[in-house]
Design goal:
- The structure holds two protein chains of two kinds.
- In chain A, about 0% of the residues lie in helices and about 50% in strands.
- Chain A is mainly beta.
- The termini of chain A are far apart.
- Chain B is globular.
- A five-stranded mixed sheet of chain B has the order 1-9-8-3-4, with no helix packed on it.
- By secondary structure, chain B is mainly beta.
- Classes of the chains: A mainly beta, B mainly beta.
- The interface between A and B is medium-sized, with 26 and 26 residues.
Amino acid sequence: EPEVTQTPSHQVTQMGQEVILRCVPISNHLYFYWYRQILGQKVEFLVSFYNNEISEKSEIFDDQFSVERPDGSNFTLKIRSTKLEDSAMYFCASSDLPTASYGYTFGSGTRLTVV
Amino acid sequence: DAKTTQPNSMESNEEEPVHLPCNHSTISGTDYIHWYRQLPSQGPEYVIHGLTSNVNNRMASLAIAEDRKSSTLILHRATLRDAAVYYCILRAPNYGGSQGNLIFGKGTKLSVKP
């Protein structure tokens, strides 16, 4: 069964450093998403992406965050200057279509620890 | 997306059926009912979705009330691997080219006892 692949599985970074989280969505999917989950809390929507541009973003997704599809397979989330409160699991997801008649496929996540 | 209400937690015995309820009294006529689950230390996983009719797939069944104000996810024979947080999510259809997004609540934490 096709999978969404995320790397690295765990990243530790110092406060103020830039991090890039990588995702390889399912190959024929066109819509991509990032979510995050702070330990013990809900899964929160960050951003959706289609046709090389952001479709929607949440209030969490401020100027410190950016997304990119640098080539035909990768989808990245960059945090420019990490803060302690950015420590969380970050999940990438993709879908065939964004409509409610389709489901999302999520990756296993990257655990980001900011120290 | 309209709001859903789920119990915080439920317990089940292995190999017995599990019925996970979800109330969505403010559902609109075009909202789809989606269920996802999240196993410990993993990303959310799509389980099933429906609009009006009951649905079955290899993972579960979804029973939708006639007035659509509630639904029930049915796991026919719970296994230890089914211990997870189960999320009931309403999604409006996306018309006009705009994307919606999946909004997660707190879900129901299902424990399965051997």
